[in-house]
Amino acid sequence: PHSQAEPAHRHDYIIEIIGYKHNDMYSFIAMEMADTDLYRIISNQPMTEEETRPLFKQMLDAVSFIHSKLVVHRDIKLENWTLFKNKTIPKLIDFGLAHVFKTPDEKILHAFAGARSYCCPQIAKRHPYNGYKCDAWSLVVCLFTMVSGFFPYKIACNDDWRFEDIYGKTRNAPKSIYSLYNRVWPYSDELANLIHMTIGVQGNIMNNIDDIKKDIWCTNHT
What we know:
- By secondary structure, the chain is α+β, with helices and mostly antiparallel strands.
- The chain has helices at about 40-45, 50-70, 120-125, 130-150, 160-165, 175-180, 190-200, 210-215, 215-220; strands at about 1-5, 15-20, 25-30, 35, 70, 80-85, 90, 100, 110, 130.
- Helix content is about 40%, strand content about 15%.
- Helix 2 (about 50-70) packs antiparallel against helix 4 (about 130-150) and helix 4 packs antiparallel against helix 7 (about 190-200).
- The radius of gyration is 18 Å and the shape is globular.
C-alpha cells in the first residue's frame, strides 16, 4: 500500500512527508531532503541576534501549530531543526518521542523524554511535567544556544552547578550565565528577558508558547 501525505496537516515549518509504504516487515517514509540542520550551523559559529530572530519566529510558529493539534514534541533540539532554501527556512523533524493528548484539558506527562541539555527541570528530576511548557523550555534553550554557541545548562537539575546557581535565583538568567564565565551579555535586553522568563524562573510565571509569541522580542520587526 502507498499513500500521499494529507495536505490539511502540512505546515511550512514542519518536515513534509511526501509519501509512505509498508510491507509485512518494514515501513518506509519519504520526506523532504534538507540542506543542513541548526546544530551544524551553531557548531561552526553562533548566529547574530538579527540572524536568529526570523528563524526563531518560524520555529515558534511550528511548535505553536503542533500544540494546537494537541501534540507535544518532547525532543526539540538544534539537531531536529533542519534548514531549507539557503538556510532561511527551518523545519521541525523527528516526532518519535511525540505525545498526542486526547483532550485540550490534558497537559501532564510522566515519562522521561528528550535530550539532556534541552530537558526542562521537571523532566530532568523525573517529576510529572507540563508537556507544552517543556516544549517551550526546549525551544528557548535552542534560542539561547543559537546566539551564544553553548548551552545555558548542562542539565536542568542540581547535578549542574550552573543550574544550581542560576535557576530561580537571579533577575536575569542569560546575563548571569555569561557572568559565570566573566563575560558580558552582548545582545539586547529584550532577548535576555525572553530567555529569562522561560528558562530562568520557576513555577507558573514561566513562559508558555503563547507568552513567547506575544513577547516584544518576537513582535519587534526592526
